[in-house]
Write a structure and sequence with these properties.
With about 150 residues, the chain is α+β, with helices and mostly antiparallel strands. Helices cover about 30% and strands about 35% of the residues. It has a seven-stranded mixed beta sheet, with helices on one face. A three-stranded antiparallel beta sheet has the order 4-6-5, with no helix packed on it. The radius of gyration is 19 Å and the shape is globular.
């Protein structure tokens, strides 16, 4: 009888954890703001996908919408660009604390965020389009559209 109780509790815990993971993964990404500096864009987000694959797939699915709605990326004359997606967390704050990311395009003292990068997309001459998942790995978009894991040593 004790064995059945333990199995049931483990099963219940697994269901709860699976349900929570599903809920986290199905929340829509919310874009709070976009701050540009030439060919470098900072995108403040909430509910960004948790996995490397989810982040890359979100970018591939939404890159045209980002171009239409926010005009990003904005490549340099040589075609290079960087887009960094930052977790908006608790919102804008005053500079106060060391090492916050502040945006000069906002004319207020409350124009900084905690530096919690979650994903970036870069285009360069040597690597083409690359993805950095920050808490995961780095990837490159192959010429045939394949996603290739890379190491930058």
């Amino acid at each position: 009888m004790k064995n059945r109780k333990a199995i049931f509790l483990l099963f219940l815990a697994g269901c709860v954890l699976s349900g929570y993971w599903l809920w986290l993964s199905l929340r829509p990404v919310e874009i709070i703001a976009v701050h540009d500096n030439d060919n470098h864009s900072n995108v403040l987000v909430r509910n960004f996908p948790l996995t490397d694959k989810g982040k890359i797939n979100w970018w591939l699915k939404n890159k045209d919408r980002l171009k239409e709605k926010y005009d990003i990326p904005k490549p340099s004359s040589s075609g290079y660009f960087t887009i960094i997606f930052w977790d908006f967390g608790e919102g804008y704050k005053e500079e106060g604390k060391y090492d916050r990311l502040c945006f000069d395009d906002m004319k207020t003292k409350v124009n900084c965020i905690e530096k919690e990068a979650v994903f970036s997309v870069d285009k360069s001459r040597n690597f083409g389009i690359t993805f950095n998942a920050y808490d995961g790995d780095n990837y490159r978009l192959g010429q045939d559209g394949d996603i290739i894991k890379v190491r930058f040593d």
